[in-house]
Amino acid sequence: METSQDRLENQYLYLMNKKTQDSNTHTTEQTDSFALTKFIKSIFQEVSPEQRVVVYTFFSIYTFFTITSLNHIITYFKIGNTIFYSIILAIAYEFGSFSLILALIHVERIGKLTVYSILIFLNLIIAIGNSYSVYISISDETLSRFCEFIGVDKTLTWKRVVAWVQGSTTPLFALSFAKATLNYIKPKKKVNHNQPPL
User: Fold this and answer.
1) Which of 65, 105, 72, 73 lies closest to 89, judged by CA?
2) What integer pLDDT is reported at residue 11 of this predicted model?
3) Is the full-model pTM beyond 0.70?
4) Kind and range of the H or E element at 133?
């Protein structure tokens, strides 16, 4: 028969085990939350303080393009979705595109063909979304002035041309600056000088 002392000992052991489990869980959560921060710091360690100005400038330009593109493709996704799902999809596409650019640093782990295939598909949708948003934003008055400026008759063809040029170049420039930033801070492969020649 279990005595009161046994019950107290069992209760004490239970509380100690629970405290240990909570401590381990907290440590794991802290490790996960700082994983991205550590990854970013490890990348920037390869860049000298003087060169970080270039990196920050490139990444700022990428951010401006991405914010503009995000707003445009929200308009595009609203064709067949509610505003909530349109925002979710737009964010997913933009973050997906950047994560694939980031993955090119370690492309050997994923496969270059896979990364570029998904990247092309994502940015094709982003370009279509940007172009559609620009198209519905062009007013007749603005189109008339543009056609007058280049010396052509006002037609829907020129409206489509303007929309595609403006819309498709936004994600293209965003990708270019993101890739330029990552190329600038990409860790150099270490050469093992102690390895004997073949």
Assistant:
1) 73
2) 58
3) no
4) helix 112-137
